[in-house]
Design a protein that fits this description.
279 residues
């Protein structure tokens, strides 16, 4: 097994592992340790069944339960196994067969609007467009550790309120549907496995910092977002078919770039069950 860094601060490619085969405990432990070290792991050229994907997810913890009803069956699929979600813009009878179908998405942590967010996400590519639809990751540890004291100090120990409309690709576009949950979490989260602090707010879901005036909350959050999204902390993944990515939502956030509306994009997603966020 080889571990090849992808970016200066985040991401590593794992080579020499066939995830369609049973893995020894030693290899599973090494993959999990690499995940904690690099936040995002990439496995290329993996021929995975849905059951393979579920098995890989268990390397990182318990499989997360779907928060939304199962999507329609896509062409060529016999059916979706429990707790696998389609991320796709493919439409049948004018309706998307999957979730989060079109366009770009601002930086976010998956499930941050839930009371207990899922700690990890696995995404496997089946079909990708000719260009665009890239996933960009940001290292929340590095951003926190370099955040100016004037911004960090007023936010230490504070909590933020989060809300998300599932049907919306961006806030305020008028296309949203009612979110299934809203939440409050620490602005800076202490990772329950590494003990390190990371920025735990984002542009897409965070509404305000609790206990601050609206003006001060908006000002500080804007400065945090600008700092956390700097190119220094980023890795942009250009998808190929049969790529598998696994990322840690406790200490990283991610965004999606736009892609041609007329081209197909189909991904299979699983998540890793989380725990309540420690301060």
């Amino acid at each position: 097994m080889e571990i090849i860094p992808l970016g200066r601060h985040i991401g590593a490619e794992i080579r020499g592992v066939d995830l369609s085969r049973p893995l020894t405990r030693e290899v599973r432990d090494a993959i999990h340790a690499a995940w904690l070290d690099h936040l995002v792991l990439l496995f290329r050229d993996q021929e995975l069944t849905q059951q393979n994907l579920l098995d890989v997810t268990t390397i990182f913890g318990r499989i997360g339960q779907l928060a939304r009803p199962k999507a329609f069956r896509p062409p060529g699929f016999d059916g979706l196994l429990d707790n696998i979600m389609l991320i796709s813009n493919i439409r049948e009878n004018g309706e998307p067969i999957g979730a989060l179908p079109d366009g770009e998405m601002m930086f976010h942590h998956d499930m941050l609007h839930a009371a207990i967010p899922h700690k990890g996400t696995c995404l496997y590519s089946v079909e990708v467009p000719s260009h665009g639809g890239d996933t960009v990751f940001a290292n929340g540890y590095a951003a926190y550790e370099t955040l100016p004291e004037a911004v960090r100090a007023p936010l230490e120990g504070k909590r933020a309120f989060h809300h998300y409309n599932y049907g919306s690709t961006q806030k305020g576009d008028g296309k949203g549907t009612a979110a299934f949950a809203q939440s409050s979490h620490p602005v800076f989260r202490t990772h329950d496995e590494t003990g390190r602090k990371a920025i735990y707010v984002n542009r897409l879901m965070t509404e305000r910092v609790e206990g601050l005036s609206g003006e001060e909350s908006a000002r500080l959050l804007a400065e945090v977002y600008d700092h956390a999204e700097k190119a220094d902390w980023l890795y942009a993944h250009v998808w190929r078919p049969r790529d598998l990515l696994i990322w840690d939502n406790r200490c990283s956030m991610h965004a999606r770039t736009d892609f041609p509306a007329g081209e197909r994009r189909l991904m299979l997603r699983t998540t890793v069950e989380g725990e309540a966020a420690p301060v």
